[in-house]
Amino acid sequence: MEKPVRHRIRTAAAAGVVVALGCAGLAALPATANAAADGLTVQYRTGAAGATADQAEPWLKVTNSGAAAVQLSDVKLRYYFKADSASTDYRFACSWAVKGCGNITGTFGTLAKPTATADRYLEIGFTSGAGSLAAGADTGDMQLRFHRADWQPLKQSDDYSFGATQAAYGNWTKITAQTGGSIVWGTAPEGNDPTDPPTDPPTDPPADGATLFDDFNYTGHNDPKIAANGWTVRANSGGPGVPGATWAPDNITFSTVNGNSLMNLETSTAGTGASTEQSELLTKSMKFKDGTYAARVKFADAPKSGPDGDHLVQTFFALNDLKAPMADDYSEYDFEYLPNGGWGEPANILYTTSWETYRPDPWEAVNQHTESRTSFAGWHDVVFTIDASSIKYYIDGQLFGTHDAKYLPERPMGIYFNQWLIDLAGQTGTEARAYDQQVDYVLHVKDQVLTPAQVKTKVDAYRAAGTAFEDTVPAAATAKSAAAAPADAAR
Question: What secondary structure letter does DSSP report for 285?
Fold first, then answer.
């Protein structure tokens, strides 16, 4: 029996000890410098001073030079460099940080107007776990690094932000910082205009976009409205998960809390494959492609009963079927939370992953992911958007990761929620235990990119009107049942 794809993905990722991040197609920051008095100062030193090195090591400190506290989750830093070739991919990692590597993210972008010393940038962001900077305070050391995906030597001598003589921390205006979409420190490479997409589109999206909305107002897993509304409660065998586990329809239940309907997915085990029951809800057809995908999901770090420690995966994602190994029309976009680690990770981690394709055996994958090593227990608004230029992932209204156009979908997909066990190595006991993942709603708006705030407005409008379900998304021209997707069995 082949190992589940997810297990093999993360094992490979852990073996590389790096985060696989591709080149996100964002534009550059404003090409203007601002005084430190505007709020932030960036200090830089290099941990790899050679003109050529196996990896670049931009070590950074950010100081709040303003008069008021600054939320680090609002701060973005950019280190600009010249790619060694147009096709070169790069990988980011954090070696050590006072604020915790799990609270620091890194994504790569492409400049709109390349120069002789810059056509790419590494954007550093912070999760909410990084907290705030009081006036006069600094982040302390952030020992960051990046390297070529093929680990070939990396040329630094022609990189805009590189400072060969920066052996100690000093103010460095060739690295930019921004808050709220406005640059507050540094100078971007010449000729690049202000960049980051605004918090909201300049105009509201059309009101008549085809939409799927479900408030999950059902009586049970066998409620006939579930099938009538286009969902399948999984009962067929196969991956992902523990060999011998079953997908139990009655592990999906519905309840009303304070007048609000919720779906619950339970996974239970007593330490053997035969005793393991997992849960999955998926759309019956693959008809979802570009646009906005959103859900409100409650992740859990601890079981509702029994001992803790299992390598659990709690999810919200879209995918289609893999027609053949390395088929170029495969697509998948994931939120995956591992409350107890797994796939080589020792503790909490949240992944967002965008897929181009893969081959199960021998293993080969083309994907890009962003991760955060911190607890996400509790309710979270999760959103991903797909348009002609990129895939963006948001958590609780904050941009979590931007993935490159290389990973855009070629075919429509199904929408899934599931909860399952990677293995039984995290908790080896035979005492029964059970875990819950809850879902408040799901929303898809076809061919429209909504901000998280616009998602909330749309959901609130459905609820104010008493609409528990709507599906106006047309069937795809060659729609196929998502329940039968080979990729699901491979997961």
Answer: B
Candidates 231, 289, 228, 212; CA nearest to 472 is 212
Token digits for 282? 């998926």
Per-residue pLDDT tens over the stretch 438-470:
999 999 999 999 999 999 999 999 999 999 999
Tell me if 177 sits within 8 A of 40, measured CB to CB: yes
pLDDT for residue 16 is more than 70: no
Which of 20, 24, 19 lies closest to 404 in space, CA to CA?
A: 24
Give me the chain's average pLDDT, please. 86
Q: In angstroms, rounded to a whole number, what is the distance separating the alpha carbons of residues 139 and 132?
A: 9
Listed residue (19, 170, 164) closest to 94, CA to CA: 19
Collapse the DSSP code of 273 into the 3-class scheme (helix H, G, I; strand E, B; otherwise coil) and give the result. Answer: coil
DSSP 342: B
Say if residue 486 is exposed, middle or buried (CB neighbours under 10 Å; 0-12, 13-18, 19+): middle
Cross-strand pairs, 290 = none
Note the pLDDT tens digit of each residue in 279-318.
999 999 999 999 999 999 999 999 999 999 999 999 999 9
**Secondary structure letter of residue 318 according to DSSP:** E
Give the pLDDT confidence score for residue 15 in this predicted structure. 30
389: region left, alpha or beta (phi > 0 left; psi from -120 to 50 alpha): alpha
